[in-house]
Amino acid sequence: MVNIFVITYSTYGHINKVAESVVTGLKKAGAVVSRYQIAETLSDEILAKMHAPPKPDLPVIQAKDLVEADAFLFGFPTRYGTTPAQVKAFFDSTGQLWTKQALAGKPAGFFFSTASQHGGQEVTVFSTLPILAHHGMIYVPFGYANAHLFDNSEVIGGSAWGAGTIANGDGSRQPSQKELEIAENQGENFAKVAAKLAA
Question: Is 184 helix (H, G, I), strand (E, B) or coil?
Fold first, then answer.
C-alpha cells in the first residue's frame, strides 16, 4: 500500500478541516496515511493577539521525515498569492534532501484556503511548483474531477489545482459540504495516482 503524508499549516483551523476530508478520500482508496503539521514560527503572544485557536495534536514534520513517504499532499492558506512564511521555512529546510535528490520521483499535490474567491488559490500552488521542480517531484493536479467545481450557484473553493475553501477575511466562513466533498475526491484520486507511480 502507498504511504502518503498529509502535511498542513493552519492558523485558524480551516485547512485542518479540509485535511480531514482529504484523509478520508486517501483511506477510501486504500492508502496508508500519516498526518503532520508544519512548525509555527509566530510566538504564543502574537498568536493570542491574533485570536488563533490552539494547534491540533499532530506531530511536527521535520525535513528528514519526508524520505519515509511515497507521496505528499500539502495544505496551507495563501499569503499574498504564495505560501505562508512557516511553509516556506519548512521547504527551505529541505536543502540536504535536495542535494541528494532524495524526493525525486515522488508525487505531490496541494489544497489551500483564501479569504476571498479571488484571493490567490491557484497562484498559491503555481508559486510553489518551483520547489517541486528543484526536488524532482511530480506535481499531481486535481483537474476538474468533481462536478462541484462547475457549480456557480454559490461560493465554492477549489479548482483544477486542488481542493480549497474560502474563509472570509475574518475567518468566519467554515468549509462547506461541497468543498469537503471536493477534498475527499481529491484525496481518493491522488491516492490512485500515487499507487500507480509507486508500482
Answer: helix
